[in-house]
């Protein structure tokens, strides 16, 4: 049996960040990472399309918490301890400069996730963190104020244990045996599968500022919307999927959404259309794109309103004006299923938040057991927020373990 002062289970972002900070703050501790796969940091590699969306340029703790459908209340205190500015400083001190994009997302200046991976591997080696790959954890047993960990490559004994395995059902089962409650995991960040004539054959079209509601619920979102080969994506859909994760799972991902493409009321839109009927009388509606709507989408909505490509503005009667106003402000689409957003699979679920001390990220049920990252029931919308939760939890846990 091998003894280590601290063992971190999980060789992902949170695991490496925690282990490095523990070893740096207390060089006397023997720290090891147990990773089940042949190489770690897989999620870092694919994040942000291979660029690694490290964090988000939001520097007010209260504002930052509002991007977490689960964990908003619990993360307020931790974000006062370690948040975006601290993350930026941590990486810059280690030679990794970050940049802010127009939408607030932050990436390494290199535009490559390999920069982050290389940083972690270098820091782990520098601080003598042992990284053990292909170690599948089979059992965790508390023994005389220590933990015996059985793996596919042998057994370990440790004084302090940090779990940073993300959404791993095998580890959740082991934690249940230790007395923890696991909130049932469901997908969080996903796109909507929609088959509808109005969006057929126009993948890649982006409506910049829409409002989307899930009918028969209080769920709604706003922002850019992307039409894809399979349906709809982009920030407003992903945000809706995150905040609606539990409700949409209950509906087996079959529901209806209402989209307001122009962020105006039906009546206001109708008045504008009546004015356009006068001003553009001799022009065809099909070719007279309005409201900054992408041309290809405008064409689809005009045809869905019962017109053809030759219909002139002067020809519009009350019914057709109302039909067009309805398509622009109250378009209903049927969602039938979901698709994973790129390779970035995020799960709502994990260790019950009431069972964690958020001043230290230590378990309230088992002494010297700590958590970081998505293993707990915290998840965020897309944009670097899930990584910020990982850095914050890992740093605070590391600080307390190293003492």
UniProtKB/TrEMBL annotation:
The RsdA/BaiN/AoA(So)-like Rossmann fold-like domain, residue ranges:
5-399
Question: Which residues does the UniProt record annotate as the domain RsdA/BaiN/AoA(So)-like insert?
Answer: 186-346
Asked if the Swiss-Prot or TrEMBL record annotates the protein with the keyword Flavoprotein, the reply is yes
Gene3D superfamilies, from UniProt?
A: FAD/NAD(P)-binding domain, HI0933 insert domain-like, Translation factors
Necessary cofactors = FAD
Cross-referenced InterPro entries: BaiN-like (IPR004792), BaiN-like_dom_sf (IPR023166), FAD/NAD-bd_sf (IPR036188), RsdA/BaiN/AoA(So)-like_dom (IPR055178), RsdA/BaiN/AoA(So)_Rossmann (IPR057661)
Keywords attached to this Swiss-Prot or TrEMBL record, sorted alphabetically, are:
FAD, Flavoprotein
List residues traversing the bilayer.
none
What protein am I looking at? NAD(P)/FAD-dependent oxidoreductase
Q: Which organism is it from?
A: Algibacter amylolyticus
Upper classification of the organism? Bacteria, Pseudomonadati, Bacteroidota, Flavobacteriia, Flavobacteriales
């Amino acid at each position: 049996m091998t003894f280590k002062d601290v063992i971190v289970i999980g060789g992902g972002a949170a695991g490496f960040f925690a282990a490095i900070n523990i070893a740096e703050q207390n060089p006397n501790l023997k720290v090891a990472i147990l990773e089940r796969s042949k190489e770690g940091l897989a999620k870092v590699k694919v994040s942000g399309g291979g660029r690694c969306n490290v964090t988000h340029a939001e520097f007010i703790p209260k504002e930052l918490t509002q991007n977490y459908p689960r964990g908003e209340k619990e993360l307020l205190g931790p974000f006062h301890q370690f948040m975006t500015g601290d993350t930026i400083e941590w990486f810059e001190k280690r030679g990794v400069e970050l940049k802010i994009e127009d939408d607030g997302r932050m990436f390494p200046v290199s535009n490559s996730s390999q920069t982050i991976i290389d940083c972690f591997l270098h820091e782990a080696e520098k601080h003598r963190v042992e990284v053990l790959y292909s170690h599948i954890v089979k059992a965790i047993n508390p023994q005389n104020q220590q933990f015996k960990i059985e793996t596919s490559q042998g057994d370990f004994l440790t004084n302090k244990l940090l779990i940073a395995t993300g959404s791993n059902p095998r580890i959740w089962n082991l934690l249940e045996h230790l007395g923890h409650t696991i909130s049932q995991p469901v997908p969080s960040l996903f796109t909507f599968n929609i088959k509808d004539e109005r969006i057929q054959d126009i993948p890649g079209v982006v409506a910049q500022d829409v409002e989307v509601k899930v009918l028969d619920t209080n769920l709604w979102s706003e922002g850019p919307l992307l039409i894809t080969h399979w349906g709809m994506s982009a920030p407003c859909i992903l945000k809706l999927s995150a905040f609606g994760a539990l409700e949409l799972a209950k509906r087996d991902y079959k529901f209806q959404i209402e989209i307001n493409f122009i962020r105006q009321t039906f009546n206001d839109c109708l008045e504008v259309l009546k004015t356009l009927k006068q001003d553009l009388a001799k022009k065809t509606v099909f070719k007279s794109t309005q409201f900054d709507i992408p041309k290809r989408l405008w064409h689809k909505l005009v045809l869905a309103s019962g017109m053809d490509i030759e219909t002139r503005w002067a020809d519009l009667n009350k019914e057709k004006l109302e039909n067009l106003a309805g398509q622009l402000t109250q378009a209903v689409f049927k969602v039938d299923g979901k698709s994973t957003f790129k390779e970035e699979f995020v799960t709502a679920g994990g260790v019950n938040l009431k069972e964690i001390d958020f001043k230290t990220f230590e378990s309230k049920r088992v002494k010297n057991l700590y958590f970081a990252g998505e293993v707990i029931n915290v998840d965020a919308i897309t944009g670097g927020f899930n990584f910020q939760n990982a850095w914050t939890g890992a740093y605070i846990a590391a600080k307390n373990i190293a003492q």
